[in-house]
Each structure stands twice: as C-alpha cells, then as structure tokens.
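Bench log. Compound arrived from synthesis this morning; before running ITC I wanted a structural hypothesis for how NAP sits in the protein. Inputs:
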Amino acid sequence: MRAPFRVIVITGASSGLGAALALLYAGPGVAMGLIGRDPERLAASAAACRTAGAMVESALIDVADGSMLAAWLSDFDDTYPVELLIANAGTSAGPDPDTPGEPLAITERQLSTNLLGAVHTIAPLVPRLCARRRGRIVAVASVAAFRGLPYSPGYCASKAGLRAYAEALRPQLMSYGVGVTVVCPGFFSSPMTDRWEGSRPFLVSTERAARRIKRGIDRGARRIHFPWPLVLATRIADLAPAAISDAILRRMHFHIRSP
Ligand SMILES: NC(=O)c1ccc[n+]([C@@H]2O[C@H](COP(=O)([O-])OP(=O)(O)OC[C@H]3O[C@@H](n4cnc5c(N)ncnc54)[C@H](OP(=O)(O)O)[C@@H]3O)[C@@H](O)[C@H]2O)c1
C-alpha cells in the first residue's frame, strides 16, 4: 500500500510516542527527518526506520534552540519537501507535592520545550507548506491541555498553550490546503509515564497510542483526543464552576519526577 506521506519530520523521535510513530510511518519511498537529543536512542530509532526501508536523516537538536532547529528544518525541506510535520518532543516534571507552587526552573523548562519548542518546529515550515499548498502539521499536546491540574502547572500551561496555538493556526492554514491535527492523549506507557507517581487511568501501550494517532492523522482528523472518559472528565472539570472542580481536583495526589 502506498504510504500516505512520503516526507515526514518528527521531533522527540528518540523515545516513546515519537519513536513508535516513526516506525509506523517508515517504509520504502519514505524520507524521514528524526530529531532528538540522546545520540544512542536517536540512532536506534533511525536504524529501525532504515531497516523498515525509509531514508532517514537524524539530527541532535534541542527544540528550545529555535535558530538551530529552523536552519536544520529549512535545509531538510530544501531537499525533501516536508509533507507531515509532527511536533511531538516534550518533557514533564512537577513540584514536590508538599511544596506550594512550582520552582521557576521546572516551569521554564517545560514551557521552552513543550510550547516554544513546538512553535520552533512548526513556524519555520508553515510558509513553505502553504506555498506548496499541501501538508499536515501535528501538535502533540495532552488531556492536560483542557484543565490545569494540581502539581503540574508548567506542564498544563505548556500543553494548553500548544493546543491553543495549533487550533489557532488551523482555520487560516486550511485555505492554503495545509491541515492541522491537535493530539490530546491520556496516559500511554513511556519513559515519561514511568516518572509519574500516582494512578494512571486508562493507560494504553505506546504502540496502541501511536496506531490510534496515525489512523487519525492519515484520515486528516483535526483533533485526536482519547481516552474519552479522561477527555470528558477534564473538559467537565473546566466547564464546571471552579469551586466544584477545585474541590475535586485538590484530592488528587501525584508527583511527576524530573527526568
Ligand atoms: N506519556 C504520556 O502518557 C503522554 C500523555 C499525553 C501527552 N504526552 C506527550 O507526548 C509526547 C511524547 O511523550 P512520550 O511519553 O513519548 O515521552 P518520552 O518517551 O519521554 O519521549 C520524549 C521525547 O521528546 C524528546 N525531547 C524532550 N525534550 C527535548 C528537547 N528539549 N529537545 C528535543 N527533544 C526533546 C526526547 O528526546 P531525548 O530523549 O533524545 O532527549 C524524546 O524523544 C510529549 O509531548 C508528551 O508531553 C505524553
């Protein structure tokens, strides 16, 4: 079967969801740009995609470094005009549950990776995709985008910001023939989830999450939100009077260990 996208860039391709999506999209005739920071994990992910038949260029780039990322994306796009861009790189951390607030450094790191890093990934290619009048941009946010949750203000802010950024781009980019997909998943197993101390309702495997996300991307979904009970719960928590949702949410106890 012909691959739906022939040129694909994925950030955070060295681990978890990004590596799983890369492998699902890899195949003969597919050119891939894979971005991450850890050399060994990124090399392993790239090797698996090559074994599946894809041509792979990988790059060790911190997505917080906007100029380095823009230069690499432009060079790659000059040779391989990008059709699918997946802004997936992300990090998570939370304060000690017994300490009020969140240390500024933790908040800044999450905003600069999850929000600015995704903007650094998307913005340089928007004019190019629009000029070619084709392509799809995918922003991997989280169900944490729907309602600020205790013990993770920086993470929730970064994902809410990314969701809003991508939703804001979509209507305008539609008139240029460029699609935007916003992904808001719940828990899937990955090194990030391993650092979550607390319950993980409706946890699915990374592979299952990746297959579901790929199906949505390939059919041009504007939003991929799952699992529905968690999506519904976080959306109701946002719509409900704050006094009620705060009373429920303050009973939640979890801690996200720093990487
Ligand atoms: N796990 C979940 O349950 C869950 C739920 C909802 C949403 N998400 C989101 O899904 C995405 C993937 O998460 P995951 O669970 O697969 O996490 P993961 O296994 O920890 O992988 C995170 C990926 O992001 C990369 N990354 C992190 N910081 C980076 C930076 N500054 N510059 C470049 N790359 C960076 C990592 O690369 P290196 O390791 O090479 O640094 C790694 O490839 C994230 O955006 C996450 O917020 C996850």
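What the model suggests: The mean pLDDT is 95. The domain at 7-256 is CATH 3.40.50.720 (Rossmann fold).
ITC booked for Thursday regardless.
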